[in-house]
């Protein structure tokens, strides 16, 4: 039995779930609504304030989909109640970020600023720096976990952190393994 798949998903107050016969799931909550077509083989049931995912047999395909389906449902519930966010840090001389309307403007060492327009459902925040030594932060947030992660990865891809001085865009929790530069001559 799947350890993840058999766990029930608690539904907080204010969350509505609609499940069709073909496993098209619509979840509405305080932050918005999400829709997704989940695997039709899985059996999704709602009992009181919990969702349960069961598999029809012990075939390999059904075992693979069991935990996946439960995780996708749990992420949808979390998204419409709390939302998701990824924090990026800009490290480098002259690296700055600012918002213009909904879009994000980055100055990351190119000869021109880089404009990024958010897709629907994604918002950017640029908090004030507490001190000059703190790195500039960009917060990508939204209700769809995959879209938040993809947008954060696209921003990071613009200027990945390099291992010598650590300049670039990195996730807040990411640790950059630093390399030693050229060693001086020794006699």
Give the helices and strands, then pairings.
Layout: E1 9-10, E2 16-19, E3 24-29, E4 32-37, E5 43-47, E6 50-54, H1 60-81, E7 84-91, E8 96-100, E9 103-107, E10 114-116, E11 122-125, E12 136-142, H2 145-158, E13 168-171
Antiparallel strand pairs: 1-6, 2-3, 3-4, 5-6, 7-12, 7-13, 8-9, 9-10, 11-12
Mean pLDDT: 92
Please give the domain count. 2
Strand order of the largest sheet: 11-12-7-13
- Highest CATH level, the class of the largest domain: Alpha Beta
- End-to-end C-alpha gap: 65 Å
The CATH architecture classification of the largest domain is Alpha-Beta Complex
Low-confidence stretches: none
Helix content: 10-25%
The CATH H-level superfamily of the largest domain is Ribosomal protein L6
Question: What does this protein structure show overall?
Answer:
This protein has 187 residues and is of the alpha+beta class. It has 2 domains: 9-81, Ribosomal protein L6 (Outer Surface Protein A, domain 3), CATH 3.90.930.12; 84-171, Alpha-Beta Complex (Outer Surface Protein A, domain 3). The protein contains 2 helices and 13 strands; from the N terminus they run ββββββαββββββαβ. The chain has helices at 60-81, 145-158, and strands at residues 9-10, 16-19, 24-29, 32-37, 43-47, 50-54, 84-91, 96-100, 103-107, 114-116, 122-125, 136-142, 168-171. It is elongated and about 65 Å long.
Distinctive features:
single chain; 187 residues; alpha+beta; Outer Surface Protein A, domain 3; 2 domains; four-stranded antiparallel β-sheet; 2 helices; 34% strand; elongated
């Amino acid at each position: 039995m799947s350890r993840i798949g058999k766990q029930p998903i608690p539904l907080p107050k204010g969350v509505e779930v609609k499940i069709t016969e073909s496993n098209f799931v619509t979840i509405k909550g305080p932050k918005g609504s999400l829709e997704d077509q989940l695997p039709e083989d899985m059996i999704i049931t709602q009992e009181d304030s919990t969702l349960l995912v069961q598999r029809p047999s012990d075939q390999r395909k059904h075992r693979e989909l069991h935990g996946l389906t439960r995780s996708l449902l749990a992420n949808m519930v979390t998204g419409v109640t709390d939302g998701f966010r990824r924090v990026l840090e800009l490290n480098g001389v002259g690296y700055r970020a600012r918002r213009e309307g909904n879009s994000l403007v980055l100055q990351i060492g190119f000869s021109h600023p880089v404009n990024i327009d958010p897709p629907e459902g994604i918002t950017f925040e640029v908090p004030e720096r507490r001190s000059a030594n703190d790195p500039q932060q960009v917060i990508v947030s939204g209700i769809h976990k995959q879209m938040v992660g993809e947008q954060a990865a696209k921003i990071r891809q613009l200027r990945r952190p390099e291992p010598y001085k650590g300049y670039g865009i990195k996730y807040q929790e990411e640790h950059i393994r630093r390399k030693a530069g050229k060693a001086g001559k020794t006699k």
